[in-house]
Amino acid sequence: MASLSSLPSGRTLVHLAWGLASWLPAWLFVRTHVLNTFAVAGPSMQPLLSPDYAASGARDEVLGWMWRPHRHLSRGSVVGFWTPHDPRKFAIKRVVALEGDSVRPHPRYPTGQALVQVPPGHVWVEGEDAFRSVDSNDFGPLSTSLIMARVTHVLWPLSRAGRIPVAEKGGARVVRREGERPVVWQ
After folding, report:
1. 93 is a catalytic site residue
2. pTM for this structure?
């Protein structure tokens, strides 16, 4: 058993607590405005994220860059956003089309349009698994103001840790805005 003389004094504990508390505002600022981690639950982003979720419930932890997340978006970026149909829910999907692009939506699109143009200030997002995803095919183009993070890395599990690849999705279903040349991803 430790003797009383080996325990920290009350003054030492107060200094330690004050030192930790003084970093709290900086930590909160970083978590709210710069970087944060998110758990990916659900099958919509399989096989890219949480590939074992359906079998075991295992979820990936990802890193989200929150500082100006809607700037410099590109086709193929993975983003985290507040869902337009339920603002209490956070979702992670891939950007398929940018403002000015046109998309041929999946048949479940509510209006049944053959071609949807993405309006200014919006993007078209889709999950990796089209049949198990609630995305722009259900709620239409997503306002960029709802995007809270650019998801850039898998942090957990360590066996899958690394950068999330930027890969265009949608293929022939996406018609680029006029005057833009296709980008070759390397």
Report:
1. yes
2. 0.80
Rg (CA), the chain: 21
Angle, CA of 122, 128 and 129, to the nearest 5°: 120
Q: Where are the alpha helices (DSSP H) in the chain?
A: 10-29, 53-56, 136-139
Check 44, 77, 133, 136 and give the catalytic one. Answer: 44
- CA torsion angle for 131, 134, 136, 139 (degrees, to 10)? 130
Q: Give residue-wise pLDDT tens across range 41-58.
A: 888 898 888 888 878 888
What is the rounded CA–CA span in Å between residue 154 and residue 161? 5
Which of these is catalytic: 50, 56, 74, 93? 93
Q: Give the whole-angstrom CA distance, residue 126 versus residue 94.
A: 5
Distance CA(126)–CA(75), nearest Å, equals: 11
Active-site annotation holds for 6: no
